[in-house]
Design brief:
By secondary structure, the protein is α/β, with parallel strands linked by helices. It is built from 13 helices and 9 strands.
């Protein structure tokens, strides 16, 4: 596998080991001299962050760090970031970290010049046209995990505190001007985080591939993304310094986020309320839900999954073989089999079902979702009921 390339889809991506060395010139090319460096508290004091800030300084870029970002970001994180951005008269954002830091960084750059509240730009219809596009600051995104693919996305996810719901905020110009995908930045990720984020990338590809509608570009990207996950994720979890495996997962993450413009489905529509109410890791929650949603969707996707199993190269082909592959992959990288193992219970099942039904990702499920269907998926995932 070649682990160095320049990509232009969907945005400018500098991909390859060691390319973080190009951070200063990338930021300058995006028109920034004094960016706000948005990351999370867990990353703020790590060597990869200090090294990146030093590279910026050596290149004449005066960056200020903002790290008040939770793993499931809330409005207070965004409000604090906007305040720091405005007070510092920053001219853009370097978003550095996992999906949460990237989302908050993009949202700070988007919201710093707006006068309407962030909820007015939820991904509903043409609400994005309410924004003053001329005030949106540039973003350079640097992922340090391989999961969400937020570095190539035009949206950010944030939890609405009053309703405990995850909201998707969208604008075409939230797309980062440039991305540095350096797999060396992911080497220090612990196995559990590698597994959770990697399964998030897999979920994005799988749900995009299964979503109804005609989008062969997204389908092709999703299928290749899943092939990369199948060959890379277990290696990345077991041998963290395997740069080829880390590169495969970093590519798959960007591919999943590119492909899911076609749609997502019940994995995400259930994962969003579970994460908002129980503060579970998003990718890990997706991973637990995946086989139960796949089994529920079988009537609509069996033939497509059989073709996918052949492309991925499974020795055990067909829908059943692919389902067994998913279960084996999860078990091999330490993903729990039941939602109850994430601390989730059935006390809020009615609320979760109602939230999942109206989640914007629900519309992309290949089998139309109902309260009864969502309840059945949730109950099966909670108890670990799955016929393999």
């Amino acid at each position: 596998m070649a682990v160095a390339a320049n990509w232009s889809y969907p945005t400018s991506i500098r991909f390859g080991a060691g390319r973080i060395a190009e951070i200063a010139e990338t930021v300058a090319a995006a028109g920034m001299a004094r960016p706000l460096f948005v990351t999370d508290s867990g990353l703020a004091d790590l060597d990869i962050t200090r090294r990146t800030l030093a590279l910026l300084g050596e290149g004449g870029i005066d960056a200020v760090v903002f790290s008040e970002v939770r793993s499931n970001p809330v409005e207070e994180n965004l409000t604090a970031g906007i305040e720091v951005f405005r007070e510092g008269a920053h001219d853009g954002v370097v978003a550095f970290g996992g999906g949460s830091a990237l989302d908050v960084g993009k949202l700070v750059a988007f919201m710093a010049g707006q006068v309407l509240p962030v909820w007015d730009f939820e991904d509903i219809g043409d609400w994005w046209t309410r924004a003053d596009a001329d005030t949106i600051a540039p973003v350079v995104a640097v992922p340090t995990t391989a999961g969400t693919g937020s570095e190539v996305g035009r949206a950010g996810v944030i939890t609405h505190g009053a309703t405990h719901t995850k909201k998707v905020i969208f604008h075409p110009r939230m797309m980062p001007r440039a991305v540095i995908c350096d797999p060396e930045l992911t080497v220090a990720m612990p196995p559990a985080l590698t597994a959770g984020t990697g399964m998030d990338a897999f979920a994005h590809c799988l749900e995009a591939y299964c979503a109804p509608g005609f989008h062969p570009l997204a389908d092709g990207i999703a299928v290749e993304g899943m092939r990369l996950v199948a060959g890379s994720l277990a290696r990345a979890v077991s041998t963290g310094h395997d740069i080829e495996a880390r590169a495969g997962m970093m590519a798959a993450a960007a591919m999943g986020a590119t492909a899911f413009q076609k749609g997502l489905g019940a994995i995400h529509s259930l994962s969003h309320p579970v994460g908002a109410l129980y503060d579970t890791h998003h990718g890990l929650t997706n991973a637990v839900l995946m086989p139960y949603v796949l089994a529920f969707n079988r009537p609509a996707v069996e033939d497509r999954i059989a073709r996918l199993a052949a492309f991925v190269g499974l020795a055990d082909p067909g829908f059943d073989g692919f389902l067994r592959f998913v279960v084996r992959l999860r078990a091999g990288i330490g993903v729990p089999h039941r939602l109850s193992e994430l601390g989730v219970d059935d006390r809020r099942i009615d609320q979760i079902v109602e939230m999942a039904l109206v989640d914007p990702t629900a519309a992309g499920n290949p089998v139309p979702l109902t309260r009864e269907g969502l309840r059945a998926i949730f109950e099966d995932a909670l108890a670990g009921r799955l016929q393999i």
